[in-house]
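Input chain follows. Return structure tokens only.
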Amino acid sequence: MKAPDALRVLAELSTSQWGLFTAAQAADRGVSRVTLARLVDAEQLVRLAHGVYRDAGAPTDQFEDLRAAWLSIYPKLRAELRLQPGSLESTPASGTSAATLHGIGDHYVGRFEFTTAVRRQSQRPELRYRIRELDPVDVTIKEGLPVMTLERTIADLVEERYDLSNVAIAIRDADRQRPLNEKRMVELLSPLAARNGLRRGDGVALWELLTELAGIDSGSTVDKVASDDLLGRLIATKYLAAHGITLDELLSRPLPSSDDPAVQRELLREVAHSSALGRRAKALGHV
């Protein structure tokens, strides 16, 4: 294919992909790697990464390398197909890559992180995959790319054992963009509480610790959780399961005698300030 014809084909291809395209996409349209190499030499194209190119006349920005890495994961698929809701190939940016897209925290990206529901391996050291079932509630679009939400991104940073003071900076930055969903934060942080020196499953305590480090008024997270029957019951159930009893079993027991307020307080606080238990505790004035 002659250069002018190739440039026309590539322009049509790259228009909906931030001015980028892959060698595999070009090959599907009849443009060979030899032609791509000649166009690079003629400064008509810019080679960004292995198998990914940019039209030399297309604008660039700080996220170009991340977009190129994302395109390279499924090099034959057009971006518009991967951006469709429910796509198994969406591979949203996660971890520090997501934090960079959201503009939160001081995380210097040494490699590109993506989440996928399908196990993948890469020979390229700059790419890292997290294998996880993708809950649609945790995925959004930022700067044209699929990315984990602010809430999921913050939880991922905690999971990766970043210093909590650094995570707190990300939380403060996120809070300036929009109010975080505290219920979702508690859900995501609950499995990470024990590794951070807190009671197992106590996502409320971990979230309050992080907001305190961030210098943010959590708005009485405990009260918010306690007022939500579904979330409160979920937290209490997870905590009690670790101790071999069910929430229904505990609720069927009589509350401790008011003659021993220390025992009352300990039991009621042990099951978190949540759901029916939280309201019963508050009614007695012990939490």
